Amino acid sequence: MGEMMEMPELDAEGYLTDPSDWNETLAAELARQENIQLSDDHWDVIRFMREYYEEHQVIPDARFAIKHLAERLGKESRNKIFELFPYGYVKQACKIAGMRRPRAWSTG
Q1: Are the C-beta atoms of residues 104 and 62 closer than 8 Å to each other?
Q2: How would you class 42 by CB atoms within 10 Å of its CB: exposed for 0-12, middle for 13-18, buried for 19 or more?
Q3: Which of 80, 58, 83, 59 is nearest to 69 (CA)?
Q4: Residues 22 and 70 sit within 8 Å (Cβ to Cβ)
Q5: What does the alpha-carbon distance between residue 32 and residue 37 come to, in Å, rounded to a whole number?
Q6: pLDDT tens digits, residue range 9-59?
Q7: Which residues pair with 16 in a beta bridge?
Q8: CATH 1.10.10.370 for domain 19-96
Q9: Model confidence over 44-53: pLDDT tens digits?
C-alpha cells in the first residue's frame, strides 16, 4: 500500500483554504502535483513567503519574493522566480507555500 498523506481542504483550484494547515510535507506534495522538484532556491522562496505571511497576515507580492532572491543570489537572479515557478508566482509559488488564492491578483 502506498502511503497517502492526509490532504487538508483545498479550494476548487488546489489552493489551501486555511494557510495554517500548511507544512513542508504538504508543500512537497503540492509541488509534485505541479511537476516541480523543490530545490534549495524553491524552499528559500517558500520559507520567505511563509515568514512574510506570518508577520504581516498578507501574501507577499511577487516583487518582494524577487527582491528576497536578488539579495541572496545577486541581481542576475531577477528572472529566477520565473525559472523556479514557470507557470507563475501566483499559480505555483502561492499554492505550494500554502497561501489562499490571491483574489486581488485574479486575471478574471
Answers
A1: no
A2: buried
A3: 80
A4: no
A5: 7
A6: 999 988 999 999 999 999 999 999 999 999 999 999 999 999 999 999 999
A7: 10
A8: yes
A9: 999 999 999 9
